Amino acid sequence: MPMMNRDQYLDSLRSSDHSVYLLGKRLQNVVDHPISRPAAMAIAETYQQAEQDGSKGLYTTVSHITGEPINRFSHIQHSVEDLVSKVVMLRDMGRKTACCFQRCAGTDCINSVYSITFDIDRQYGTRYHGRFREFIRHIHDNDLIVAACMTDAKGDRSLPPSGQADKDQYLRVVEKTPGGIVVRGAKLHITGGVNSHELIVLPTRALQEADKEYAVAFAVPADTQGITFIYGRQPSDTRRLENDTPDAGNLYYGGCEALVVFDDVFVPEERIFMNGEYPFAGPLVELFAAHHRCSYGGCKVGVGDVLIGAAAAIAESQGTDRASHIRDKLAEMIHMNECLHAAAIASASLGRATPAGSFAVDPLMANVCKLNITRFPFEISRLAQDIAGGLLVTMPSLDDQQHDEIGGYIKKYMAGREGVDSDHRLRLLRLVENITMGTGAVSYLTESIHGAGSPQAQKIMILRLAEMEKSKDCAFHLCGLGPRE
Amino acid sequence: MPMMNRDQYLDSLRSSDHSVYLLGKRLQNVVDHPISRPAAMAIAETYQQAEQDGSKGLYTTVSHITGEPINRFSHIQHSVEDLVSKVVMLRDMGRKTACCFQRCAGTDCINSVYSITFDIDRQYGTRYHGRFREFIRHIHDNDLIVAACMTDAKGDRSLPPSGQADKDQYLRVVEKTPGGIVVRGAKLHITGGVNSHELIVLPTRALQEADKEYAVAFAVPADTQGITFIYGRQPSDTRRLENDTPDAGNLYYGGCEALVVFDDVFVPEERIFMNGEYPFAGPLVELFAAHHRCSYGGCKVGVGDVLIGAAAAIAESQGTDRASHIRDKLAEMIHMNECLHAAAIASASLGRATPAGSFAVDPLMANVCKLNITRFPFEISRLAQDIAGGLLVTMPSLDDQQHDEIGGYIKKYMAGREGVDSDHRLRLLRLVENITMGTGAVSYLTESIHGAGSPQAQKIMILRLAEMEKSKDCAFHLCGLGPRE
Amino acid sequence: MPMMNRDQYLDSLRSSDHSVYLLGKRLQNVVDHPISRPAAMAIAETYQQAEQDGSKGLYTTVSHITGEPINRFSHIQHSVEDLVSKVVMLRDMGRKTACCFQRCAGTDCINSVYSITFDIDRQYGTRYHGRFREFIRHIHDNDLIVAACMTDAKGDRSLPPSGQADKDQYLRVVEKTPGGIVVRGAKLHITGGVNSHELIVLPTRALQEADKEYAVAFAVPADTQGITFIYGRQPSDTRRLENDTPDAGNLYYGGCEALVVFDDVFVPEERIFMNGEYPFAGPLVELFAAHHRCSYGGCKVGVGDVLIGAAAAIAESQGTDRASHIRDKLAEMIHMNECLHAAAIASASLGRATPAGSFAVDPLMANVCKLNITRFPFEISRLAQDIAGGLLVTMPSLDDQQHDEIGGYIKKYMAGREGVDSDHRLRLLRLVENITMGTGAVSYLTESIHGAGSPQAQKIMILRLAEMEKSKDCAFHLCGLGPRE
Amino acid sequence: MPMMNRDQYLDSLRSSDHSVYLLGKRLQNVVDHPISRPAAMAIAETYQQAEQDGSKGLYTTVSHITGEPINRFSHIQHSVEDLVSKVVMLRDMGRKTACCFQRCAGTDCINSVYSITFDIDRQYGTRYHGRFREFIRHIHDNDLIVAACMTDAKGDRSLPPSGQADKDQYLRVVEKTPGGIVVRGAKLHITGGVNSHELIVLPTRALQEADKEYAVAFAVPADTQGITFIYGRQPSDTRRLENDTPDAGNLYYGGCEALVVFDDVFVPEERIFMNGEYPFAGPLVELFAAHHRCSYGGCKVGVGDVLIGAAAAIAESQGTDRASHIRDKLAEMIHMNECLHAAAIASASLGRATPAGSFAVDPLMANVCKLNITRFPFEISRLAQDIAGGLLVTMPSLDDQQHDEIGGYIKKYMAGREGVDSDHRLRLLRLVENITMGTGAVSYLTESIHGAGSPQAQKIMILRLAEMEKSKDCAFHLCGLGPRE
């Protein structure tokens, strides 16, 4: 089957029967509601780029299973070049949408499950890997979107899954039936789930034997019975409901997260990729985390590009672009943004083959990348707001420019330097507002902290992955203590 | 006349005839519209605290003009103790409202005009100081709110007022009539103007002789003909229009800024406090800036207290409060917050008498205070979001907890550790959202950068105020170069 | 007895019989050895300033015990003004010596012991406070230097004093004899001990009942039998042995620390100020720490002044002083330096009376001050090196300027802009080297981290001292959760 | 000719006749003087690693000119793999020596001159590239060390070379003679020059036509007549003169810089690689800078490894290694260190072929790398000192452990936790002292700021190299302003 184009994808969403609630109402379809539409459009852009001259080369590749052209977002990476291309593509998408386009978690997830199912099979003699290849074939054949579902509700975080008062605080197998299993629980913060065809579910942490029932990974269609999506609110989300929405800032695109409830959902045998092999929960989580932490050095950098570009354009509109302190702030913003990218490129460039033959990023660099991501976007946002000026939060609605009585005042007093009208200036400001305090801030700021694991998780991995013993050996030698026992 | 209580103040606003536009509609009164009400309530709290046992001692003092009790916000400070008490009061108000309560700019403005009019009179033989004392008597007698109007539209910032294509980009005298003057221009980002009885207008920068017509300071009632307020939008402002508004986060209070247009407004002689004495524009701006930069080390610190308290409470609700990294982050947040306060206290403690007899803060410390303010709230916000977790931006509407079909899911999966229900947890998260990405972020973040002057202004002052020559002398002596010529 | 002048003080050191070892040799006297002389001269400067017009007012005050004039360093503070004056004096001394002048630990120590002995007496009916007043009278009468001896060897830091394999890892009472006690142990990093007349010893941490024998505080003359000082090495210390020492950078002054060994030292009854009252070890340590953490916001700021002055003078000598990035760096350096001072001033300004009548600084602000001290001097040093240029570490010996063959090259190629000869430039660079990598770095950098307690100690105190419960209450109220139980 | 081994290299230095002055004395040879020996030994280690099993693979490659094995430090890079391998090798060397091993500037320089001479020839029809290939053949045939000589004296930095009062403040051609040119001037901060066989001289900045005589590049043997090296002093350099030097901290290795004076030095025609083609001065400087800025993400990271290893080992020796704040600090140190490496790896991985066929690093990432280098080592040093404790700067000489009278005290009171003697602990501390305040700090700290260009140079390049117009285009589109004109 040929790849879908953007409209075919949007139609596929329109015809989906998944159960999505937004502000207390069940949505007819996610594409045509003003609040959810931008998120669908962002992910749709991954189809658009794949069919468009200029970007097609970057956004498509060849399936290692079917040998047919596929969207790179669905690719199982098999070389360093693949790993690097993904990062470059993510930055490009970030630049084109200035939001979370939601598709990379799926990419990173399938690459991780692909590799770990191979490892499980080697250890346990199971057949997960073959099943998963068939699943991927299905994705490739039909050009589908896959969402990764990882984070559990967690309840009391000081307790393990099996220690919770409510056993469902982590998703688990509640029944084994002929031909499959029944699962219950919820996955939080699921990015793009409402815009996906398939959901892959995996554990959220390393597990012990007592937690065996939680060691489960599988895939189900998004409209499977028992699954409910509850849309998350975002700052200023209802501006999308206003006329023409110029105050939305980012006019076309947005991200979305949802709570995904699995209320006794049946999973057929052939879609189960882990079931009880708890020692592999940790490695699966870590591999997914490594891939995904590297990805953030693509997408967030693209959003950063837009923010930096907007700040620079605002400075020009106000006549401050030659001031040395403005130039210094722009240089710092670019520097931080490129630092984020550097670690992602390094992580990809130092990638290595897994036993399954697919390629994995360098985990130390991936964690270094993500730890920076938890910090720099806040600094970049601060500097963008610094350059933008206070008008960022005191300007009236853009619609007020057309108002009979006050429109003239706004046009007169909010124009920039000669030749720059108020609309030009205010729209750029609204874009900065969107990314730093509006719907865009959800992914650019908060998700940058917590997505793919919170900062403390990266610190733990960094400590574990560094070659500390080698470093100590060098120190001992150089100060004359000789070799360590 | 006795001091007003909260309700009298709110009624005085209701009966005001000022022209205020919000989202394209003229407001009947600012108190009873859901979006503007929280701002009125925040400033009203300054009346409430002044009549309430417990806080009354801090919030009131005695007028040096009338000898009667007054609200401390209207006080002309006459001692170090006065300066320190103001900072302490501002922190207390910040803690009680978690927003910009809008009244301190007026406080700092009247203290500055009080002092500088004295200096102008000494130099030019004018009579501004006496007039201004009468104005203050009026304020004290009637317990009124004064808003400071400083920032002009500025047009092309690389050009001076007199060099702009549109001469009105800075407010100016356009006509001198018998008994007064007529002014035109606009003042941007005016905090609390819509909730004030009187507006004091002053220049926004140092001026040269060519800019003489811009060297004007005066006071007019907020409902003077020719004055129009255009309300600024804030992130998530329309959540206030939703039922019961629990998603607003901060349920009761908020800040507000407006564009204030002066369209040929007449100012009577006795309300003019500067008119052409351009060499004093710079000193007036600097003194106001110093007072106000010190104030930020009060109010923002109080908001920071709430944010830190909320983050700590969220950690407790999730069972992470004993984790060493959480404790470390809280310590850092407190540390930064107290640093902000420290410089304000130092600035007040090192205050000195002005020629007029009132007291001024130490300007170096005030600038140090404000420069920190332009940075730390962003860091504190980042850490608050780190502690809060991703749910901060992915949680559904709080109303959804009551929903027939999905309410149960939310209650089950968004509860915290044992004994903590979802409402408890989600409300605290909404408060953090408010301060870091919602209406509260306007003042806690962006205004922290630009209010009372942008960071570059502070750097320039810091360089100018430091005793660099003395430091160089010490260096020369110590390395054997002897005294400098 | 009248106060000593500088020469009398130096003579008093020359005639001291204390046992001091430096680089394996016992010193005849500390004043006349090239390596130890600068440290003696720095502390001597506290006498010089007290007798000199101009500074006398700041450096002297009146004894609350004898009613006679005393050096402010020996004063028991009895007002906020006293607390502030101390900080201002310390900054002045730092500026005049650019090093650790060693006397403030003693000041802070006597103020702490003064207060806590009062508290112990109230609790236990002991007579320590009266004894301590007599000790202070002795100090005041004879204008003596007191060194504080606190930090123990500590052995394995994960174990308490009584849990150590070697019981002497913390100083303790090993014998009670008629008329006194015998103590054994060592105190590390003792600042200025070799230049002091008296040593006060106190515990280094909170203690439990099992550690009772370690709960001991007392004073002994520095030349008491059984006490040995072992001088610490500093970077580039032996440059002081070179001819005329221009490469020393700071030509006249320096700091010093020593290991002080107490090898069964007898302490007479009247010099014991705590002996077994272990519950007061913690409060004593904390009070001393608070006083001393505040002090750092004086002395280090003064050293920072010199470093900033030197950097600015170097920029002038090289023609870079007008470059915007240089000015920005200087502004940042000043800003950080004044931040350090701000918290010290705030800590002093918010000081309160103790039960004994003396005044204590605000402990929260004192800890905030010190935590900044553990960080900013490193940043200031980095910026100073940035402004200075690479020559800082690649210049030849200053003596080489006089060399027959190569002197001309150095003079020609290391001169600065017109009118600035190489000696001018190189001496300033040597001063920066001294403070950032030489003998001065000992106190400006490393001691800034660890002196008065390491950063982690400040974080623990900050968490403990902040009004967290009040902040949580505010958060609960504002988001609609109502009062907390 | 086969490659030299370490001893052959050291002998080649011993037999060199170059004129080197150290502390006013002309050195007989640099290998056998205690102060200069460690620098020679560090560079000698590049020979040792190339002959040793285990490291040989990384340290050698094949000459693209001779087809023979060569040391990788002399290689003209011809692939991304070459670029990455260089960075990896530099980190390895940094880890093995904990100092500046001085050879990479030469590597980066020959790669730059190789490429730019090709470009000059294309533009001017000159024959520099062929000559330079012959020079490289000479280097490869004889396995020689090349030092890069770039930084001029600069005089008044606000003036160009031709505007200086003393024309020699930048090195220039003073005479053209048959068969060559005569040059005069000085090159500062020349790393490893005293340990090199050949010097390559190139301009230090972009030049205008008026500066034509300064547009000169060439190579000469280090012992050419008219060349004088004046050794730079380092903190604690004379500790190398003490017995057995355990207090040196880094017992075997060190870096060195020298002032290199060219007092009318003759350069034969065939060694001239640029002579008047001023438009290529800028590109040559930028290309060298890019290569060298990337290199810093190798060598400094290796030194960082040792520092981190030493800090971790000290924590273990004191029983603090399990404390959460210590672990957090180590994680931060590693994180920063790997960030430095990440940008270097990214810069190499994104490298591209030059017209000459050799490969150049990505310049944006190289500048990003270097800008981090100007900051993080200071932070890492601060954290290392934090973990190390105050003993770092208060410990006596290590020799004192053997002292009859005081040795026992030191052994007793400076031992660590059980099983760790004082020597173990103190040696590790001395190593940390060396890197953060001793001879090692020269390259780890100050040179990290200024080597390969000061931070402001990186900021300018970052602003210039970022794709700002593309970013602005995206911003315009997303906020509805449509395509920019």
Notes on the protein architecture:
The structure is a homotetramer of 485-residue chains. With 485 residues, chain A is of the alpha+beta class. In chain A, 48% of the residues lie in helices and 14% in strands. Chain A has 16 helices and 14 strands. Chain A has helices at residues 6-14, 37-51, 56-59, 80-97, 104-124, 128-142, 281-318, 324-349, 363-373, 376-388, 391-394, 407-413, 422-437, 439-450, 455-465, 468-478; strands at 19-22, 25-26, 60-62, 69-71, 146-149, 172-177, 180-191, 198-201, 216-221, 227-231, 257-268, 272-275, 352-353, 359-360. In chain A, the strands form four sheets. A six-stranded mixed beta sheet of chain A has the order 2-1-10-11-7-6, with no helix packed on it. A four-stranded mixed beta sheet of chain A has the order 5-8-9-12. Chain A has a two-stranded antiparallel sheet with strand order 3-4. Chain A is globular and about 75 Å long. The termini of chain A are far apart. In chain A, 66% of the residues are buried. Chains C and D meet through strand 7, strand 10, strand 11, helix 10 and helix 11 of C and strand 7, strand 10, strand 11, helix 10 and helix 11 of D.
